[in-house]
Amino acid sequence: MIKPQLLLITTASILLSTFAHASVESQLSKCATVQDKLDRLICYDNIANSLPAQSSNNPAPTTETVAVASSTAIVTTTANTQKSAVEEFGNLEKSKEEQTVDTIYLTVSKIKKDAYGALKIEFKNGQVWKQTDSRRFKLKPEQQIFIKKAALGSFTLGMEDRNTTIRVKRLK
């Protein structure tokens, strides 16, 4: 048998929650009728502040702000990670969660062609890149070039004084 006291408490709590829900709905509809945007926002904020705070197990997401400094030397990146970011640029197998470098400027050291006529370019910093498309692109040692991130994880190589680029991939 259900105890009368338990039944009374359950009924009272259901009625109170219904009235509280109706009260919040009426307050929200009252705020919705306010014409001024700022006043309407203040009204909604007052309702949110009057409700009891709900604790959740999910912590609020935190955002991390990264300061970016412009360097006139080789790369635009953060000062602390400049060297490692340049060394890791284009290494898709070893890529970190997010690289901050989008473009690097390098000086050509050696140029070779493979059996298919694709360029194999070695740079002063030891990186080796290979051309993946079949376009002609003339390069000489000691020329300054840039490698930029392109669509779908690819990279393009170009020069500042030319309006053409070639697709490349990093070998070493």
Architecture blueprint of SSEs:
Layout lengths: L3 H29 L4 H14 L31 H7 L14 E11 L5 E5 L4 E4 L12 E6 L5 E4 L6 E6 L2
Helix pairs in contact: 1-2
Quick overview of this protein structure:
The protein contains 3 helices and 6 strands; from the N terminus they run αααββββββ.
Structure characterization notes:
- The protein has about 170 residues and is of the alpha+beta class.
- It has 3 helices and 6 strands; from the N terminus they run H-H-H-E-E-E-E-E-E.
- The protein has helices at about 5-30, 35-50, 80-90, and strands at about 105-115, 120-125, 130, 145-150, 155-160, 165-170.
- The radius of gyration is 31 Å and the shape is elongated.
- Care to count the β-strands? 6
Helix-residue proportion? 25-40%
Q: What is the general shape? A: elongated
Number of helices: 3
Q: Cα distance, first to last residue?
A: 80 Å
Could you name the ranges where pLDDT drops below 50 across 5 or more consecutive residues? 67-78
The largest sheet, given as strand count, sense and whether it forms a barrel, is: 6 strands, antiparallel, barrel
Order of helices and strands: HHHEEEEEE
**Rg from alpha-carbon coordinates:** 31 Å
Main sheet strand line-up: 1-2-3-6-5-4
The overall pLDDT average reads 76
What structural class do helix, strand and pairing data support?
A: alpha+beta
Beta-strand content bin: 15-25%
